[in-house]
């Protein structure tokens, strides 16, 4: 964990309401693993007060980049910043995706602004772990064509890309999970009995819920990255509770076996089977 | 010029007046990679209860203008696991450790402290009489008070019960949602507290207007951050005039100048809380800022600042 004042190298709009910011921070960049995140203080004033969490889109030896959607006070300020300005960055934080070497098929499922960490993951698989792009299948979902993030970037990596949009303006009209089901249902029964696979997902909660159910049905290991409001980002405030399977508080209690995991340190990536969806 | 930042809280000598507030610093380990923990005046742990607590359902945190609401619900592993898993690390840091404890009843306070009394390696208790996010048991509600800190009689009962059990420094943490904070501090003093900490968070609420629902899972939460600071300073000043025991002042301290306001108003030490979430180095930066201020103002001893308010009152 490093806390650095970082130079903004680039801050540009890449889709309606979506921006990519590149920051110079070698210490954080070198330590960053896919699925981990940084906390960024959007301003040096007291309002907004708390830092905002962003997963990595990329991290190389010098720079990190984040892809963010302008949704509120903090991200609005970020979008107005120019190259040459500086921000406080804390990271890398949290528990990222596990790199499973046993697996031969990697199914990456992303929705909306949940896509960026999967791009970091795919890049790491190919560039660092030397996995074949042919084994990586990426399922991307968005409301419409213009909000489909990172599609070209994934294609440049040479991985298979499957696209779904809510309005059908590109790819399959409907949910990205339907594309995943197609693949796991058709290929799954034949292939995944003898050949292993791993699912990695990040996106809206209903999508993650469906992906988790699918993974369970076809018995495919699945990791999901959840989004949860947080304050500190490193386990001090216990604000980012995520309900997971756990122990009974008291013997004989009728309460279900669950506990609140701390999303910023135990997550944001969880084994799907651990999570309890309300 | 050699600076003397030493201050005293009850039986406890602190090498400087900068502590970290309960519930904002975990059990310290979370910060070891980013600050030298030994530099702190002391650490107040996350509140410990007799039994483990799951905490409140999400959402637990929401940002508000220059502040935040939290409704964690005292998630903690319980006193046994605290002793087994957290205390050994805290003990090794080598600075004063104050264990924050809470009970749902007077009896439970007594049980938690009773269990901790058989352990070594910490220096005092802060009685959390003022958590806004938990339900209290029968002995707390017999006066229909929302929490112990809302009722001078209840404060006295808890403090005197615990006082009988320990020789360690005993601090009562007061809540701000009362009509006369001085009376609450006086009750703690009369019951034998060595010091009072003030203030805990304000009971507060945020509403999602589209959903017409409270934002927090617990409906209400505790407001903290710089937005509460002027009220906390005023309360510190009021309490300083009413009691003789030392005060630990807190409430939205973000930098050294904020800390100085509390010291000048009469606090013998300060606690850094919400600022830890924005900047995990905040506590040591505040300490450095205090030193810089003392040098600039040519003040050799921090004691010369404490309660140094010039007013025409």
Outline:
The complex is a heterodimer of chains A (278) and B (313). Chain A is α/β, with parallel strands linked by helices.
Can you give a write-up of this model?
The complex is a heterodimer of chains A (278) and B (313). By secondary structure, chain A is of the alpha/beta class. Chain A has 2 domains: 92 residues, Beta Barrel (Elongation Factor Tu (Ef-tu), domain 3), CATH 2.40.30; 123 residues, 3-Layer(aba) Sandwich (Rossmann fold), CATH 3.40.50.80. In chain A, 22% of the residues lie in helices and 33% in strands. The radius of gyration of chain A is 19 Å and the shape is globular. Chain B has 313 residues and is an alpha/beta fold. Chain B has one domain: TIM Barrel, CATH 3.20.20.70. Chain B is 31% helix and 19% strand. Chain B contains 9 helices and 16 strands. In chain B, the strands form 4 sheets. Chain B has an 8-stranded parallel barrel with strand order 3-4-7-8-9-10-15-16, surrounded by 6 helices. In chain B, strands 5-6-14-11 form a 4-stranded antiparallel beta sheet, with no helix packed on it. A two-stranded antiparallel sheet of chain B has the order 1-2. The longest helix of chain B is centred in the N-terminal third of the chain and has 16 residues. The radius of gyration of chain B is 18 Å and the shape is globular. About 2% of the residues of chain B have low confidence.
Which descriptors apply to this entry?
heterodimer; A: 278 residues; alpha/beta; Elongation Factor Tu (Ef-tu), domain 3; Rossmann fold; 2 domains; 7-stranded mixed β-sheet; B: 313 residues; 9 helices; 31% helix; globular
